[in-house]
Amino acid sequence: MKDYDKLILDLAPRKFGKLGQIWVAFLCLIILLAMYAYYQQIDKGLIITGMRDYALWGIYISNFVFFVAISLVGSLVTAILRLSGTHWSTPLTRISEVIAVAAIMMAGLTIILDMGRPERIYNILLHGRLQSPIIWDVLVITTYLVISLLLLYYPLLPDFAILKKHFKEKPFLSKIYDKLSLNWKGSEAQVKIYNNAIRTLSVMIIPIAFTIHTVTAWLFATTYRPGWDSSNFGPYFIAGAFVAGAGAVVVLMYVLRKVYHLEEYITDFHFDKMGKLLVLLCLVYLYFNVNEYLVPAYKTTVEEAAHLEGMFTGDFAPLFWSVIIFGLILPIIVLIFPKGRKPLPLFIIGLIVVVGAWWKRYLIVSPTLLHPFLPVQGVPEEWHFYHPTLLEWMITFGTLAAALLIMTILFRYLPIIPIHETAEEKGFLETHKTEEL
Amino acid sequence: MEKDNKKSRRKFLKLGVKLGAIASIGTVAVAKALDNKDKEEMVELMSTDGSIIQVPASEVQEVAIKPENYNSREGFPNKKFVMVVDLAKCKNALKCQKACNKGHYITGENAWLKVYKMQESEKTAPYFQPTQCQHCDKPPCVKVCPVDATFKRKDGIVLIDNERCIGCRFCMAACPYSIRVFNWNEPNQPEIVHEEEYTPDHCGKPSVKGTVDKCDFCPHETIKGELPFCVKACPNDVFAFGDAYEDAVTNGSGQTFKLSALLKEKAGYRLMESLGTEPSVFYLPPADRLVDFEKGMENFNEFKSVDKIE
After folding, report:
1. Looking at chain B from residue 76 to 95, which residues have their Cβ under 8 Å from any Cβ of chain A?
2. What's the CATH number for A26-120+128-409?
3. Would you place residue A436 in the very low, low, confident or very high pLDDT band (cuts 50, 70, 90)?
4. Which of A7, A36, A357, B308 gives 20 to 30 Å between its CA and that of B134?
5. CB A378 within 8 A of CB B111
6. Could A224 and B174 be called an inter-chain contact, meaning their C-beta atoms sit closer than 8 Å?
7. What are the tens digits of pLDDT across the range B236-287?
8. If you average pLDDT over every residue of chain A, what do you get?
9. Cross-strand partners of B83
10. What is the C-alpha separation between A413 and A434, in angstroms, rounded?
């Protein structure tokens, strides 16, 4: 009884502290700057970006791929780990589902930001053609968003019922939680539907998650261009996505644990487990990278060679090797050791992994475009390279800030650690259920 | 399948006749298709390989292009436009590019028709290669367009509806020939581009900010009975334009060639055939050149393909 009350008190959402307010204000400021930059883009056209006819996609598209990649972690932690009966991941399910929802929303928005005529988006509905991979992407991303929202929402039902009681003194908040709880009483019939629904969604989301990132990979792999024309691309993207997503979970675990004092619930044990998971994912991703780069490098057809030389020794070499070494090799080495999986070192590695994952997408999009089949001639010299402009960066940072803001707001009003599930696992609920609910 | 075959062959015939175009037909298939019709009045036609065939008069009808029937998404019925580019004749005079830029009111910094300085390897000779939209029969750009803004017409021309284009640029990524051009800013075109009602037929009239442009194969000229801008402008008869069904192409001087014979004789080829895009533009290799490559270099500008209009 006492334990249960303490649990609720520990895990119920709390108001922002001073730091939280500053954080939100900071994010809002970045988003405002991005809105200003986007206004410029609408007004003047995509000329305000560093993109041109050769570098026809840039950081918007790599940012889009990054968001889709990060969002896959929702399916990894909530679905794959849940279905495989892993109990240690319970405190991480909500964190990863919130990441998934925020990231996939921003992925959808980012692709619109890249469009030359965003106001014509309705043409996708009016004239959509199924043979275009973009239509596949639109279909699976919206499906994934819906399932992710449900997978975030359903496990919250008992928590909302708990919060409704907890916030009795705040009638307005209590009422909202009441509405959101959909009249959850914890009755046998409800629990049965609840469990069934979550299990069904967990099963459903896995193929959808694989599909969204495979289709995103196909946006590139369905073209002829060297560096993209690869049958390895689907699994390569998925492997990379899990690395990025796991890195993001690690970072958030650490930050949220610190800010909300969740040391009792997110322990060194969880970090250790996530660290091991991250090593495994990095190794799988390394394997796909070897396939992606070394097989064409062995053959060195003229087109592939031009592309790979740019990566290995050319303009992109510093970035390429940084991403491979810091984003992939370093995590594997550090996280093999138990000391490397302690919260702080793991947090630092997680940050590097996420930043590396972003730049990795940059390396997937840009270099290929600068090495077309026919020579680059008859265009201004600046068009031979791609240098994102300040406004372009502002818009990109705006989308990243918006994703963080969505997460921040969700963490403000939702229990970061599932209360009901934790109570159930700790055995607090057996005697309690009948008395209270 | 058999039935479809007959039908399409008959349709094929209809057109050939009155346009003066002769359809190519396997005699056996025709005999089969027309089995029951041998009592009808017959007319004689010449097929593309020169053999005379007979066709029932009732199967023959006029299909003249009437402007009121013309639909810019459908194109000209029973035509298949092709171009032949003779690399042996190109000396980078760039008149083609200038005429194209002018005729399509191009104000961006990347022309739709570019003359590349090509060299396969250090040991082989450099040459100039005029390159524009290849109007592929299996266009990768059309395949990936999410909204059917870029489309393939029955006459083989690939066009863009810039009132529908959403500016995703997937078509540009998909095109292996890098011929597509994006309007990154508001095109600063002369007033004249807005004078007529918009049709996808005449790219650049107007160009629209945030949408894609490219070579349109000049159907706006063809409908007037004229050759495309580049063909007409070339002082060296590099280009020849025509109809594959007629098996004839005509160059800027007005000389007409039998397409199949020309391609055979000069060992014509298409760019990146291995990709399976099946372009409508054929190239004749730069063999036995009458022109000096170095002289062409005087006109070569690595960083410019469109002159700013005053």
Report:
1. none
2. 1.20.1630.10
3. very low
4. B308
5. yes
6. yes
7. 999 999 999 999 999 999 999 999 999 999 999 999 999 999 999 999 999 9
8. 94
9. B241, B281
10. 27
Q: Could you tell me the two tokens for A237?
A: 């993207």
CA distance B21 to chain A (A): 35
Does residue A128 contact residue A437 with C-beta atoms inside 8 Å? no
Output the pLDDT for position A437: 44
Does B114 touch chain A if contact means CB atoms closer than 8 Å? yes
Q: Using alpha carbons, list the distances in angstroms from residue A57 to A64, A123, B173.
A: 11, 21, 8
The predicted structure's pLDDT at residue A424: 86
Per-residue pLDDT at B66: 62
Are A116 and B166 within 8 A, CB to CB?
Answer: yes
ipTM for this model: 0.92
Q: Is the pLDDT of residue B32 over 80?
A: no
**CB contacts, 8 Å: A369 with chain B:** 173
Those residues whose C-beta lies under 8 Å from the C-beta of residue B98, and which sit 6 or more positions away, are B233, B307
How far is the C-alpha of A196 from the C-alpha of A193, rounded, in Å? 5
pLDDT higher than 80, residue A17: yes
Question: Any chain B CB within 8 A of the CB of A123?
Answer: yes
Question: Are A120 and B109 within 8 A, CB to CB?
Answer: no
| A381 contacts chain B (CB < 8 A) | yes
Q: Exposed/middle/buried for A247, CB within 10 Å: 0-12, 13-18, 19+?
A: buried
For residue B95, pLDDT beyond 50: yes
Smallest Cα distance from B111 to chain A, Å: 8
Instruction: Please state, as a whole number, how many other Cβ atoms lie within 10 Å of the Cβ of residue A266.
Output: 23
A291 touches B at CB < 8 Å: no
Report the chain B residue with the minimal C-alpha distance to residue A134. B146
Of B147, B176, B303, the CB nearest to A381: B303
Those residues with Cβ within 8 angstroms of residue A81's Cβ, 6 or more apart along the chain or in another chain:
A89, A93
Cross-chain Cβ contact A378/B145 below 8 Å: no
Which of B116, B146, B181 is the closest to A132 by Cβ? B146
B110–chain A Cβ distance below 8 A for any pair: yes
CA-nearest of A78, A69, A64 to A107 is A64
pLDDT of A435 reads: 44
How many Å apart are CA A234 and CA A228, to the nearest integer?
11
Q: What is the pLDDT of residue A316?
A: 96
Q: Which residues, numbered 233 to 252 in chain B, qualify as contacts with chain A under a Cβ-Cβ cut-off of 8 Å? A: none
pLDDT of residue B237: 96
Give yes or no for residue B5 having a pLDDT over 70. Answer: no
